[in-house]
Automatic annotation (TrEMBL):
UniProt-annotated location(s): Cell membrane
Gene Ontology cellular-component terms listed: plasma membrane
Keywords: Cell membrane, Membrane, Transmembrane, Transmembrane helix
Keyword Transmembrane helix found: yes
Species for this entry: Steroidobacter agaridevorans
Name of protein: Membrane protein
């Protein structure tokens, strides 16, 4: 610590240059923290998905429909505990800019498949008895001020009912807590039987079958049997585990891992040259000062360590600020709404610290070595 004043004075010799270099490093590590945090967060979320649930979709695409007649056949496959379905409704409330993630389903069976959903039994019974009933998530109810007993109009840009309208009215019969599945989980359910009877087209079609298994170890066998059952039929199926489905949906947005690493790599590569240039200029401007230190008895190695410490302090401090800002962004309401209970993984912060040390060493070692090799007489003479 007794040499800290020397390091600090050298770091702030040109305040403007130091400030702008720090700002560049902060922005670089803020970007690193955000991209890698989201990337690692997705990976962690995928690894935690339920392994005893399968999703059955049309082989040609998840938006293509499958016959509702597949349901009893899937239910009879050995090892299947429960089966429900989703038919995408694509709703919105009052304005198309206020989307409502609505799905038509069999709510009784759905609650058997999604065991972590918290719902009162009487709400499930009310849903089964109310043709136009709807179950909504707690967060959605709080957002729009809805409560049990309300009748709400939900518009859709896809489905026209038999009266010729794109606005459907539903009676809220219950609420549920699906926070265990994250903010992206569907939060508005209507009765499939009512939806199928009232729509003008697409009758008898669903978009997903959700299958709960008795034994997760049988997932591969059950998946194969389901797909073999509908091979060469009018609508062939693709059966995947929950994590595989989520990964395939992310792939539609591009390879997130590659994109994140490519952007971060380009930014840090540029940062390496910026920091190295700053340190090289700093040492070049202090040639005579470093020579004086050597004259006063500082060894070549000690001078090298002082310059490397200066580079390390610059990079680590700025990187810590950048990573800290990224962590705060993850706690923001906007990101929490988008991703659910999402925080920066500790692994990302540790990786950021390691990269900061690497950048500091690579950018600081050449000027530090130059300072070590400095000839006192030549330096004092200005040569």
């Amino acid at each position: 610590m007794k040499y800290f004043s020397l390091v600090w004075a050298g770091l702030w010799r040109k305040k403007t240059r130091t400030v702008f270099t720090m700002i560049s490093i902060v922005i670089a590590f803020l970007l690193f923290g955000l991209l890698q945090g989201i990337n690692q967060g997705f990976s962690t979320a995928l690894s935690r998905l339920d392994v005893d649930r399968l999703y059955v979709t049309a082989r040609t695409g998840m938006t293509d429909g499958m016959p509702i007649s597949y349901l009893p056949r899937i239910r009879n496959v050995a090892g299947v505990r429960a089966v429900s379905m989703w038919a995408y409704f694509g709703g919105y409330y009052q304005d198309a800019r206020n989307p409502v993630p609505a799905f038509a389903t069999d709510a009784v069976e759905l609650m058997k498949v999604y065991k972590e959903i918290k719902i009162r039994p009487e709400y499930i019974e009310a849903m089964a008895k109310t043709r136009t009933g709807a179950l909504i998530g707690d967060a959605l109810a709080a957002k729009h001020g809805w409560k049990v007993g309300d009748r709400v109009p939900i518009g859709t840009s896809i489905w026209t009912n038999k009266s010729g309208s794109n606005t459907w009215e539903f009676d809220i019969v219950g609420t549920f807590d699906s926070s265990a599945y994250g903010a992206g989980f569907p939060s508005f359910y209507l009765n499939y039987s009512y939806f199928d009877e009232a729509r003008q087209f697409g009758t008898g079609q669903v978009h997903y079958y959700i299958v709960s298994l008795q034994d997760p170890k049988q997932a591969q066998r059950v998946s194969r049997e389901i797909d073999d059952m509908f091979a060469n039929s009018s609508v062939e199926t693709r059966t995947q585990t929950e994590s595989a489905l989520a990964q395939s949906q992310l792939k539609q947005l591009g390879d997130i891992n590659f994109i994140a690493n490519a952007i971060v790599g380009a930014v840090l590569f540029t940062l390496l040259f910026l920091t190295a240039n700053t340190m090289m200029q700093s040492v070049r401007e202090r040639t005579s000062e470093l020579a004086v230190l050597k004259t006063l008895g500082y060894s070549d190695t000690k001078v090298l360590i002082l310059v490397l410490t200066e580079s390390l302090l610059l990079c680590l401090f700025a990187a810590a600020v950048g990573i800290g800002l990224a962590a705060l962004v993850f706690e923001s309401p906007a990101l929490q709404t988008l991703f659910g209970n999402f925080s920066m993984p500790l692994f990302v912060a540790s990786m950021g610290a390691g990269i900061a040390v690497f950048v500091a060493f690579v950018s600081g070692f050449p000027p530090a070595w130059r300072a070590r090799q400095l000839n006192i007489v030549d330096a004092l003479a200005g040569r």
